[in-house]
Amino acid sequence: MEKLLNLNSKRQRDRKWEDLDPDCLANVFVKVGIESLLLFVPFVCKSWYRASQNPVCWERLVFPDSEEEATDDPWSLDDNAANLPWTYANHIEGQRFDYFVRRFAREFQINWSRFSIPSFIKMVINRSGGNAKFLKIPGICSHYVNAIEKILEHISKNCKGFVGLHVADATIGTSEASAIVKFVPNLKYMCFRQSCLGKNDLLMLLKECRELVLLDVRECEGFDERDEEILKLASHISKFRCKGSKTHVLSDNDLEVEDRDVIEIDE
């Protein structure tokens, strides 16, 4: 028995990464994030490279890869998860994304003046082999001309099972809302938290995206959380969240003006 145990122990020590089942490796790589999948994992060894090409690793595309607990998971229907506070990680998300894409360009010797954010994201989408289901990109992407429209058009042509979009702290105007309705009208999960989103554009989404089961538009600017027309149209969505959204969010300058007015009236 002792010899058998010693033999099994030696076999365990002699095991190599390439002997591990590729599907097991792929299930591990699902957890590491896009940054690691692009910059590190494929270059460790051949078995890791092959496992990283498994489409299952690319079903949930979250930009950028964060070391922090960035947000609540917009794809979860768990009430506790959906009500977590907006964290500091979200506010520096754009900075992390910029660092990530610049590092990618540097590592692969791509001239930054020719680097295209939409093309980069479409390249990552292609890694899924058409299996991408969820996409989370930072709000800064909405500031690139036609970026969201180009990305959604690419998804509509290549990812038939796509169901979730997360673009928080963004500017969602008529062109972006129209692109969602045109290219991915069958979305089930959307998150535009803390974004600039006008009432008419939100109404367009509510009227056309009839398969939604979760829509997170909390703390947005452009519509009122108590708007009866919006609430009526959203009544079919089991998880509709709009708490804290206002038609106009007062800036510090606005508050200073209001304070001065109050003082003058009191006098």
Automatic annotation (TrEMBL):
Top-level taxonomic group: Eukaryota
Domain F-box: 17-59
Name listed for the protein in its UniProt record: F-box domain-containing protein
Annotated source species: Prunus yedoensis var. nudiflora
Lineage, broadest ranks: Eukaryota, Viridiplantae, Streptophyta, Embryophyta, Tracheophyta
